[in-house]
Amino acid sequence: MAKILFIYSSTDGHTREICLRLQQIVETHNNQVTLISVNDESKIDLNSFDKIIIGASIRYGKHSKKIYKFIKENSQILDSKSNAFFSVNVVARKPEKNKPETNPYLQKFLKQISWKPKTLAVFAGKIEYQKYRFWDRLMIRAIMWMTKGPTDPKTNIEFTNWKHVEDFGLVVSDMQ
Known about the structure:
The protein is of the alpha/beta class.
């Protein structure tokens, strides 16, 4: 039985939701999972885990500064263990941008960090206009208009391919 840590950064809660689904899958394969927000990471001993998986969402084209800081401060520990990273972003709704090697946000992120994750994944996120504050709703609608996405402020659309999430969960379960 492997001890696996999922550490995540979530802007609106969807990355956490993906982590919860991954936890279900990984635990059914005889693993022990701990799920924690990057905001609470100082409360955990990274050395006590066999595998560390990091998930981070995108907002306005960037991953959380806390994820960058966490990786920078812990790259040596991350490198010493089985590890993976996944990005959650709405641009991954497009088939030509839903793989690690074709997703511009993930590629940009990898160039900005020294850590080289052993396994990568990208998942399409979710648009929940009614949940956003005024400014966020306005900005995200503008971005969606430019990228030919949904702009109706009453729209809530989940683009996540849950089969891809489940497949990644199986990969994580089998990582050595």
